[in-house]
Design goal:
About 10% of the residues lie in helices and about 45% in strands. By secondary structure, the chain is mainly beta. The strands form 5 sheets. Strands 14-15-16-17-26-22-21-20 form an 8-stranded antiparallel β-sheet, covered by helices on one side. The longest helix is centred in the first third of the chain and has 12 residues, at about 10-20. Mean pLDDT is about 90; it is low at about 1-25 and about 300-305.
Amino acid sequence: MSLRRVSPVLVLHALLALLAKPASAFDVTIEVEAGESDRIETPVCAPIVLPAAPGPDVVVELEGPEGKAPGQLAVGNEKGSWVLWWVASVKKGQKATYRAKIEKGNPPDAAFKFQDEKGQYLDLLFGGRKVTRFMYAYDTSTKERRFETYKCFTHVFDSKGERLITNGHGGPFPHHRGIFIGWTRVTLPDGKTRCNFWEMGGGVCQRLDKLASQEAGPVLGRMQALVRWEDSKGEPVILEEREIAVYRQSKPELLLDFVSTLRSQKGDLMLDGDPEHGGCQFRAHSDVGAQFKDPRNPASGTTGRETKYLLLPGMKEGAKGTLDMPWAAVSFVLGESRFNVAHLNHPENPKGTAYSANRPYGRFGAFPRTTLKADQPLTLRYRFLVREGQEPLTADEAQRLYDDFAKPPKVAARQ
């Protein structure tokens, strides 16, 4: 979510006012304007001025139309700046006023927390329940281990935090893993050399350079990883900053932002392939694939009739379908549970993006075919909603989620 700049005069006045208060407790008043969409548990943020860096014992409580709710202070885009996050619900066309109290206290038990299995993966938990798992192991000691660890990706757990609902390195098409990004044809400036950063053929890989940052609290858990896209010689073709943020929701749902900033290390690169083999995609667990009969493997699966896709009326997926669709969604059965997953495409992503949304084993996503300039980073933004339960995801609801993402509500802080 983009942050709006605050007037230097407003910052100065607010800072002088805050310095007159005890550093351990102060209030902020914030107004949220819904605009043309209903806002239901929408993540919102406001830049605020703090007299000093908040300590670990500082907590935030907001009071608004829906009662009291937790807030979270996070680092802003500029050095020394801070952002206040919370989840708001405001009806279409209305405004709501929130009062945030920032003071010392005990952090709530219902909060996000990161847990690192060093050298293997980084788990995000909420109230002790596992939510996501960022897979970052890289091991070339054997051919099998290289295959298992040749790309970074994010797993999603079920609502109990017990079972992964996304695919790892097993089942049909095992290069489809969790929430992932890549292209089958990344063409170098010579026009001949290509790297397959989808199936990781020819010895290429996406491997972790470092876990750059982690923030966790009662409203969001956010991590940033630096990922090297290397050719078969181990030389970087692309350096990626990958950010994964998960927001608090009251229902058995996961709301996740995937932000990838790509920087070329080899001149102008063509990111290419096709909607089935490129871009940012979601892949359901391989047990969903067990319902799918692979025509290339007659012994596999059955029918895949439980997997259904949802698009806006009148839109078609694929290379010859509707370009720049705002979203696509899938519904699939895993074990005894049904899951709905919405994949939202930010309007600032490259134009000409095509969605794939037809595979009965639950792999779908957005494919932008674009050039990564030597001197111009490319930032791609996607949002995912994962819902567990029989309640279906409707086209109207998916569109509302897209509006939250593409046209967030207006937020203004008064200090």
